[in-house]
Design a protein that fits this description.
Blueprint: E1 7-9, H1 10-17, H2 21-30, E2 36-37, E3 44-47, H3 48-58
Antiparallel strand pairs: 1-3, 2-3
């Protein structure tokens, strides 16, 4: 069983990823990011480790080519 400090509510998780709450809600509904539902209050909960894995998988470095002057 995970500790409560290993979970983030949707607003906290969205801030962690740098996206809007609506974007994160959509991604969770599409199954792109694992989500847990708190049955007591119906809050969407996200495990920090899952968010970190998502970032590692999707974040890719961008290389910019410089124009010659």
């Amino acid at each position: 069983m995970k500790k409560l400090d290993e979970y983030l509510k949707i607003a906290e998780a969205a801030r962690f990823l740098g996206v809007s709450v609506n974007t994160l809600r959509k991604w969770a509904d599409e199954g792109r990011i694992p989500m847990r539902l708190n049955e007591a209050n119906r809050y969407r909960l996200f495990v920090v480790k899952d968010l970190e894995r998502f970032l590692e998988k999707t974040a890719k470095p961008v290389s910019r080519k410089r124009k010659a002057r």
